[in-house]
Amino acid sequence: EVQLVESGGGLVQAGGSLRLSCAASGFTFDDYSMGWFRQAPGKEREGVSCISSSDGTTYYGDSVKGRFTISRDNAKNTVYLQMNSLKPEDTAVYYCAAAPGSYCEEYDYWGQGTQVTVSS
Fold first, then answer.
1. How far is the C-alpha of 72 from the C-alpha of 75, rounded, in Å?
2. What's residue 5's pLDDT?
3. Residue 7 host element (H or E)
4. Contact 73, 99 (CB under 8 A)
5. What's the gap between Cα 112 and its chain centre?
6. Would you tell me how many other CB atoms lie within 10 Å of the CB of residue 69?
7. What is the pLDDT confidence band of residue 17, given thresholds at 50, 70 and 90?
8. Which tens digit of pLDDT belongs to each residue from 51-110?
9. What is the pLDDT of residues 25-48, one digit of tens each?
10. CB neighbours of 65 closer than 8 A, spacing ≥ 6?
């Protein structure tokens, strides 16, 4: 059974930091590019970041560049999202997802999400 389990969300003040984790199981983690998405109430889902399976190339949405860092530990089947300088507009449910191959597209698997709330 494929599972993606996010953790690390919570309530933080503006300017603070959080580190999200996503533990994967049930598929060959090394062969999948991993992405983070978020969805705020009343808004469409937004791509936040992605890290490719092949060479670890990273991608970021414009709204988080310079503040968020994605990384992966293939030995632990886990992808991380370090979020610094958080803003109230970062408040959302954050989801991790897995896409087969080297490209951050056509995600097959999704986690259940973790809530991030940034207070002003």
1. 9
2. 98
3. strand 3-7
4. no
5. 12
6. 16
7. very high
8. 999 889 999 999 999 999 999 999 999 999 999 999 999 999 999 999 999 999 999 999
9. 999 999 999 999 999 999 999 999
10. none
Six-digit token string for 115? 């809530």
Of all helices (H) and strands (E), which one includes residue 69?
strand 68-73
Alpha carbon distance, N-terminus to C-terminus of the chain: 40
Closest CA to 17 of 66, 101, 86, 105: 86
pLDDT at 52: 96
How many angstroms separate the most distant Cα atoms in the chain?
40
Closest listed residue to residue 83, CA positions, set 22, 32, 9: 9
DSSP letter for 65, please. T
Residue type, 79: V
The answer to whether the beta carbons of residues 26 and 15 sit under 8 Å apart is no
- The Cα 49–Cα 86 span in angstroms is 15
The dihedral through the CA atoms of 57, 71, 114, 30 has a sign that is positive
Please give the pLDDT value at position 106.
Answer: 92
